[in-house]
Amino acid sequence: MIFSEDEVERYARHLVLSEVGGPGQQALKRARVLIVGAGGVGSPAALYLAAAGVGTLGLIDDDVVGLSNLQRQIAFSTAQVGRSKVEAAAERLVGLNPHVAVETFAERITAENAESRIAAFDVVLDGTDDFQTRLWVNAACVAAGKPLVSGALGRWNGQIGVFAGQPCYQCLVPEIPLDAETCARVGVVGALTGVIGSMAALEVIKLITGAGEALTGRLMLYDGLAGSARAVRVAADPECPVCGG
Ligand SMILES: [Zn+2]
Q1: 126: CB partners within 8 A, 6+ apart
Q2: What confidence tier does 183 reach under pLDDT thresholds 50, 70, 90?
Q3: What is the pTM of this model?
């Protein structure tokens, strides 16, 4: 795979990095990443992955851009309010980097379509705020043997995890919490979504290029009010119905 002059200049800061370089940038160009949810986490993550030169980005979200999204979902503009999120984001991503192909799915992930949607991608980034969707995405990733980068947040706190085999996301969240909080109810600081979305994008880039040590089997907990972060191991659940088999 040969890069054009434009691409060599565009990716110059990656090409000089010893952990990326030419081979890493080629791996990024060959990669197909599915972003589930074009919201708080997915929106900045998609921008950074497009800027990084990921060859194909899939976006799945059935929502439309709302005015209250713009406080944090920086892929969208005021003029795009009312439009399909995946279509609006695709325009922005291709504008940022015309070398990226964007595949859009204006639908919800369900138990039925999760496996077929994920099948065509190498890595899945889940930024949805719904536990049921997360569990469906996780089960499909485990079944297909695809790595899952998961980002979640609320108020001032966020977390990133990478799951590949055991432990899986369901080991961490064995059942849907009855009192699950949503950002709509409890609020979220806009800049926090940039932190968590960018960290999720960074983990995707590490998985694709093989740089460093991915957060596989670990959870990074970020406390925005304290200004601190720590990573903890996720315990595999031997009784997990998804990966424990
Ligand atoms: Zn599991």
Answers
A1: 36, 37, 133, 134, 137, 138, 148, 149, 150, 151
A2: confident
A3: 0.97
